[in-house]
Write a structure and sequence with these properties.
Layout (H helix, E strand, L loop, with lengths): L20 E3 L2 E6 L5 E3 H14 L3 E4 L5 E6 L4 H10 L14 H14 L2 E2 L15 H13 L12 E4 L11 E8 L10 E8 L10 E4 L3 H15 L7 H4 L5 H12 L7 H4 L13 E4 L5 E6 L5 E3 H14 L3 E4 L5 E7 L3 H10 L13 E3 L13 H9 L8 E4 L13 E7 L2 E6 L3 H7 L11 E7 L1 H11 L6
Parallel strand pairs: 6-7, 7-8, 16-17, 17-18
Antiparallel strand pairs: 1-2, 2-5, 3-14, 4-5, 4-13, 8-9, 9-10, 11-12, 12-15, 14-15, 18-19, 19-20
Helix pairs in contact: 1-2, 1-9, 4-5, 5-7, 9-10
The protein binds iron/sulfur cluster.
The site of iron/sulfur cluster has 12 residues, from loops.
Length: about 475
Amino acid sequence: MGYPPSSSLRPSACPALSRIVAARDGGLCRIKLPGGKLHARQALAIADAADLHASGLVELTNRGNLQLRGVKAGDETPLSQRLSDAGLGPRLGAAESLDPVLAAKQAAIADDARNLLLSPTAGLDVDALHDTVPLAERILALLQSEPRVAELSPKFSVLLDGGERLAALDHPHDVWFAAMPPAARVPGEARFAVGLAGQPSAHGGDALAAVRADDIVALMRALLHTFLDLAARDENRMRDLLRSHDRHAVLAHAAAKAGIDLQRGSDIETWRRAPTDSARRFGAHAQSNAGFWHVGGQPPLGRLGTATLRGLAELASALGDGSLRLTPWQGVLMPNVGERAVPQALDGLRSLGFVLDAKAPVARLIACAGSTGCVKGMADTKADALALAEQLPAGIEAHLSGCRRSCAAAHCAPYTLLAVAPARYDLYRRRQAADSERSSPLLDGAARFGERIGIHLTIEEAVTCLREAAGVQVP
Ligand code: SF4
C-alpha cells in the first residue's frame, strides 16, 4: 500500500479506534462496525475493554457504530490494541506493512475510510431486491486497501441499499447505490441506481444512471479517484465538489475511467425507491430464510452499560446465531432467532431495558451527549430528553441537540430542540419533509433544522409548544 505525500492527507478530529478524542467526560473511542455487524464475543471484548480502560458507558451511533465514553488518560493505546485484537479494526490482509509504525498508520487510514452503510437486515429482509452482503464485502475491501483513501475526508461515506423494507434513507451520502428491478431487456441481471451527494428516496428523481451490480466496485474506485482529482483542498465532500461540477459529468468521467457503460433511460429517471418502514427495527419480524426471525429494540437514548452489553451478547448466543446488528437508529437487531425462541428473545431484550415499541416516547427521541459529555453542549440533553419523554405528545418525534453541530442526527428531525442555555431550548419544526431531507445538509447553522417556533423554552414550555404544533388540546 503506497501513500500520497503527507501534505495531501486530510486531518480529522473525529474519534476512531486509534484516535481517542478528548471530551468533557474523558476520551471518546469510536468502533466502526461494517454493516453494523458485531459478534457476541466481540461485544464481550468491548464490555471488558470499556470496564478496564473507560467509564463503562457505551453509545450506539446513528451510523450503526459503537463508541466508548470516558476513556482514561494513559489508557488510549492499550484500549485500541485490545479492540484491534478482538477483530474490531480494519482488515488490511496482505497489504499490511511489516513496519509496525507504518502498519498502525495504514490501519488508521483504513479505519477512517470504511464508511459503508447497509440496511441492518441486509441479506435477511423479505422485501429486498438484492442481498448486498457479498457486494458490501468487496466495497469494504476496496475502501480498506485503496492507497488514495488517505486523501479522503474520514466523513466520506457510501450507501449500498438492497431495497430492504428496513433501511435508513434519511442520511445523505457522498455516493449511493440502490438496487433496482432488472431492466426489461436483460431480465435477471442485477442492477443498481447510482447517485452522488444524497440518498435514494421514494419521491424519485435522484438516480443519475444505473449500473450492473458487477460493475459497482470498479465504478466506486473510479469515483474515488475522480473526486480526489477534481476536488479543491477545501472540498472535502462530494456535495462541495458538486457546487462547481455537474453531477452527471462527474459520474460520466468516472464511468469512462472505469470502462463501464452507464444505463440511462426513462425507467431510471422515473425510478422511485420503494417505501421503507423504520418501525421494523422494533419487535420481531420474519426473515427471508424461512423459520428465522430478527428481533430488535433500542436502549433508551442509544446508551447502555457493560452489564447490558454482556446480557445482549449472551442472549444472541443462546437464542440466535451469536451475531448482532447495530441499526442507524441507535438500536440493535438480533438476527436468526428460531421461530419458537422469539417470545424468549423479546422478553430477554425487554428485561435488559430495551424499548420494543416504536410508539414509546423514548423511542421517538434522540439526544446527543450534551453538556455532561461535550464541552460544546449548552444543556444536559440526555437528562432533558428523559424529562421530555414523560410528557411527549403522541406521534411527535424530536431531537435534542446540545449545539448546532447536530451530532446525534445526520437528518433533520420533525422537531429539533436546540440548546441555548442550561435547560433552555429553541424549538424548530421541519419544513416540508421531502424538501428538508434533501436540502438540510446544504444549509448552515440552525436553518437546517427548519422554522423556529419557540425561543428559550424550558422543557415544560416545549411540551406545550409541541402539543399546540401537534394539534393536541392543552390541558
Ligand atoms: S451536537 Fe454539539 S453538544 Fe452535542 S455532542 Fe455534538 S458537538 Fe457536542
